[in-house]
Amino acid sequence: MRVLAAMSGGVDSAVAAARVAEAGHDVTGVHLALSANPQSHRTGARGCCTVEDSRDARRAADVIGIPFYIWDMAERFQRDVVDDFVAEYAAGRTPNPCLRCNEKIKFEAVLDRALALGFDAVATGHHARLTDGVLSRSADVAKDQSYVLGVLTRDQLSHAIFPLGDSTKTEVREEAARRGLTVANKPDSHDICFIADGDTRGFLAKRLGTTPGEIRDEDGTVLGSHDGAYAFTVGQRKGLHIDRPSADGRPRYVLSIEPVANTVTVGPRSSLEVTAIDCVRPLWNGPEVRGPLTVQLRAHGEVYGCRVEETPDGLQLALDRAATGVAAGQAAVLYSGETVVGSATISSAR
Question: I need a labelling partner for 77 at 20 to 30 A (CA). Which of 33, 101, 319, 339 fits?
Answer without folding.
Answer: 339
